Amino acid sequence: MHLDRGAAETDAVDEDIQASLSADHGGYHFGPPAFGRLPNRAELEGFDAELRSHRSLPPGVVESLELLPSDAVPMDALRTAVSALALYDPDAGDDSRDANLRKATRLLARLATAVAALHRLSQGLEVVAPDPGLNHAANFLYMLRGERPEEFEARVLEVTLILYMEHEFNASTFTARVIASTLADLYGAVVGAIAALKGPLHGGANEKAMDVILEIGVPERAEAWVEESLRQKKRVMGFGHRIYKTADSRVEVAKKWGALLGKQLDDTRLSDICITVEEVMRREKNLCPNVDFYAAPIYHMMEIPIALNTPIFAMSRVVGWSAHIIEQIDNNRLFRPNSRYVGATDLEFQPLDRRG
Ligand SMILES: CC(C)(COP(=O)(O)OP(=O)(O)OC[C@H]1O[C@@H](n2cnc3c(N)ncnc32)[C@H](O)[C@@H]1OP(=O)(O)O)[C@@H](O)C(=O)NCCC(=O)NCCS
After folding, report:
1. Does 241 qualify as catalytic in the annotation?
2. Which residues constitute the domain of residue 283?
3. Same-domain status, 320 and 190
4. For the chain, how many structural domains are there in total?
5. What are the pLDDT digits (tens) for 156-208?
6. I need a surface site. Which of 3, 134, 319, 331 has the fewest CB within 10 A?
7. Rounded to two decimals, what is the model's pTM?
């Protein structure tokens, strides 16, 4: 069974879906947001202090992560880490709004620690304890490398984390909301969201985009590379978007900070490749780059392994996921879409021993 998106019936199906949402289910109403306003200075400082206090992983979680194979795909290991974190959360059995806010805060603080710890364990290195004197981005780089980062570098990472933090009804957020709508717990919804984010058509694109940029190698090769890929009907990862058809509003910000980082490192090669690829993709396919295409080279310039690109996306997007999960639970209705069967209707039942 599948939703029929064939040409003739598309409009009718869309109308049916609209009708079924509004008439049968009353539609889905989202909001109001958790607090409905930005924090004042005291609230922000309080939240920041709380985040810093929750960064350490429970020892049982670290022991579980130590048992994972060193060649585990980081996104798979991160999904496992979140499952393990759930088992050690003192609010695990409490699904009240206050408990969910507490769980979301701990998860945000600890996901960055988990990404850094998983990487170090996979390299046979000691896990680095968080430094409460550093902000979220700087502390992540410190836990990853065991050295305090330069302020500018931490700021660039922070900018990408802000860009990735929330993005409406993307596939992983929708996954989280569907899981939350069954009244399953917040951790379970985030585990599902991580599984959805891994796919290369969604968050995994920020790893595949880097492969593209490295394969091109030098700006002079970019135009011919794109033309040949398109001729072979290949997808250029980091381009296209289901919603953005003219521009991804996050791109200009990532592009600017990537260029600044390149200048600081005295190597603008990656930015130059990206700009040429963007020009050719617009000219040939009228497709715009998405944020992944410009975030990936930023992480590469920071010498972060490509396989951590999507986990870094996850440790930021957990903010949006959590907010959506809490919002869903505040005003819940089980997601249960209709589908329309479009296959044969005249099939006769054949007993098993007559099926050839
Ligand atoms: C994101 C994505 C899945 C959106 O897909 P969509 O809106 O469903 O668009 P479609 O898959 O229907 O593609 C529409 C057309 O654009 C083409 N297209 C879309 N993205 C393309 C890409 N990255 N490279 C080359 N062609 C692309 C398709 O081949 C199709 O062309 P056609 O009409 O000639 O067959 C798609 O653009 C994609 O696969 N991008 C690469 C992965 C990526 O960067 N994902 C991160 C998204 S934030």
Report:
1. yes
2. 205-301
3. yes
4. 2
5. 999 999 999 999 999 999 999 999 999 999 999 999 999 999 999 999 999 99
6. 331
7. 0.91
